[in-house]
Design a protein that fits this description.
It is built from 23 helices and two strands. With 553 residues, the chain is mostly helical. The protein is globular and about 85 Å long.
């Protein structure tokens, strides 16, 4: 009796981490399933499809995707690093406003900008119409850049993705000590020379991380390139799946895109692993700000204002103007259904994803080791996998399972079960969880760093189980981080297009799908209405990010 009494609470304490470990491993397995399924389906598709792809579209998809990646990488690097340096290291009129406003384009999906600028810059748009009215030229009398092109798609992506580079670069510049910068100036270097020789190399890991994030979002984009008619791997997957009904071809294209995405993920991880720059000075010294006057101040204002105007202000004005003339009623039962479907999917996916992040993150804290570290690493891979690849990777195995179950039920009980999982909301929610778990896990671990190990020890010494420690100690402290994670995942799901297009249940359309459908039918005024709602939802986490940016000054 005296032996069993202490063992019972010990057994209950052990059950919590064990059950949590099972949940964490299941989550990691779900995250790994799309990648494994895509690889198996691709290799089992036969060589005929591969040879056909190589001889027809694979070269074009590869060159177009690489060209788009290079243009977006260069563009986001130039705007993000330049703006971060200006607002952090210099002083000019409006600097406090721009350091926050430069984050606003992050709320916009790139395809929404594509709809807005096409309505203005396309041949029947106001810009070219006004040009013809003023000059009297005919349609063939002048040349105007085609917005529906590879360059146009790259510009849309640059305008919405440069904040990734800006935020990480700015954080890196703020953390730098001014001693090395001042030493370079004392040795005769100008301010710009010291920037290129000292500040930029020190911030290289953060800058590389931001550029790689922008690149991974670029290869995952579907709405922009599909609307502009740019043929990339993302559009090829959708075309093979729905237009050609070639499941093997879609899987093989998805494998190519997955390989490229995982290569980028490894590069990003290697960059973070080498981010070990140290200031050898005994005391950190704040970087002295450079006061800009005259033409230099004017250049700084213009350089910071242009991305904000093109990436946020002008699209809102265009979309609002287009929406006023559209025959789309947000209060109609049809649109209320779109909003309800979008909010339901986003809300359920956000709760499930954050719960999965808590399970994975807390399991790693309670049971550090190879198993928990591997589960965390696999759970993070989803951010590098495009939504179209995840959709194909989940649809293939679950469709096979549904068909096998239906065949067995027909043969055994003469009952047809149909498709139980394929085409369901829950499979779509699983795809969202795989895609955005890394974002939720990052927010959770950032808040978890505030919970000292002594708190866990004190809680355990008082007889609290690990689950009780999570509920009573961790979650109250982590409430702000968890709220941020919920909002980020909620908005990301609202904007996600390829996975929703491929996996949504029949007659279960969302705002993103409705905007894409109207834009595909060239009804841009109508597409502006759901696009505005998506943008309004996206402003919530961006406002939180802006507040955080403001506190860093």
């Amino acid at each position: 009796m005296t032996v069993q009494t202490p063992d019972m609470p010990h057994k209950r304490r052990a059950d919590g981490p064990r059950a949590l470990g099972v949940v964490a491993l299941v989550v990691a397995g779900i995250c790994a399933l799309p990648m494994l399924a895509v690889a198996i389906a691709a290799f089992s598709g036969g060589t005929d499809t591969v040879q056909h792809l190589i001889s027809t579209v694979l070269g074009r998809y590869t060159l177009t995707t690489l060209a788009l990646v290079v243009m977006v990488a260069v563009g986001t690097f130039g705007i993000g690093v330049g703006a971060a340096w200006l607002v952090t290291m210099t002083r000019f009129p409006g600097v406090r406003f721009f350091e926050i406003a430069l984050v606003l384009p992050l709320a916009f999906p790139a395809y929404v900008l594509a709809y807005a600028y096409t309505s203005v810059l396309d041949h029947p748009g106001i810009v070219q119409t006004l040009l013809r009215d003023v000059t009297g030229w005919g349609p063939r009398d002048y040349w105007f850049p085609d917005i529906r092109s590879l360059g146009g798609a790259a510009l849309m992506l640059i305008l919405v993705l440069y904040p990734y580079v800006y935020l990480l670069s700015r954080a890196a510049f703020l953390q730098q000590s001014g001693t090395t910068f001042l030493a370079a100036r004392a040795l005769g270097s100008s301010a710009w020379a010291a920037f290129f020789k000292v500040s930029l190399p020190l911030a290289r890991p953060a800058i590389a991380g931001g550029v790689l994030l922008a690149v991974m979002e670029t290869i995952a984009d579907f709405g922009t390139v599909a609307y502009f008619g740019v043929q990339t791997f993302a559009t090829g997957i959708y075309t093979s799946w729905f237009a050609l009904y070639d499941r093997a071809g879609a899987a093989q294209l998805a494998l190519c895109l997955l390989s490229f995405a995982l290569l980028l993920a490894m590069l990003e991880r290697a960059q973070r692993g080498r981010a070990k720059y140290h200031d050898t000075a005994r005391r950190a010294q704040a970087m002295p700000p450079i006061e800009l006057t005259g033409g230099h101040a004017g250049f700084a204002v213009v350089a910071c204002a242009v991305p904000v105007i093109l990436g946020a202000v002008l699209p809102i004005v265009i979309l609002f103007t287009m929406g006023l003339g559209a025959e789309q009623n947000l209060l109609s039962p049809r649109y209320l259904g779109f909003i309800r479907n979008s909010v339901t999917l986003a809300g359920v996916a956000a709760v499930v994803t954050v719960a999965a992040a808590i399970a994975v993150g807390f399991f790693r804290r309670m049971r550090p080791g190879k198993t928990s570290s591997s589960a965390t690493y696999v759970a993070r891979l989803g951010y590098a996998v495009p939504g179209g690849v995840i959709a194909v990777g989940l649809m293939v195995p679950f469709a096979a399972f549904d068909n096998a179950l239906d065949a067995w039920m027909r043969e055994t009980f003469d009952i047809s079960t149909g498709l139980l999982i394929t085409g369901s909301i829950w499979l779509l929610v699983a795809a969202y969880m795989v895609r955005f778990l890394a974002a939720a896990l990052g927010a959770y671990e950032g808040g978890q760093a505030m919970v000292h190990d002594n708190m866990d020890a004190a809680s355990r010494s008082l007889g609290t189980t690990p689950i009780g420690t999570l509920r009573r100690v961790h979650l109250p402290i982590l409430a702000p981080s968890l709220l941020t994670a919920l909002l980020i995942v909620f908005v990301d799901v609202m904007k996600e297009l390829p996975a929703t297009l491929i996996m949504r249940p029949f007659n279960y359309d969302t705002l993103a799908v409705q905007a894409y459908r109207l834009a595909s039918d060239e009804r841009l005024d109508g597409a502006a209405v759901p696009s505005l709602v998506i943008v309004a939802m996206g402003l919530l986490p961006v406002i939180l990010i802006c507040r955080q940016v403001g506190r860093q000054r």
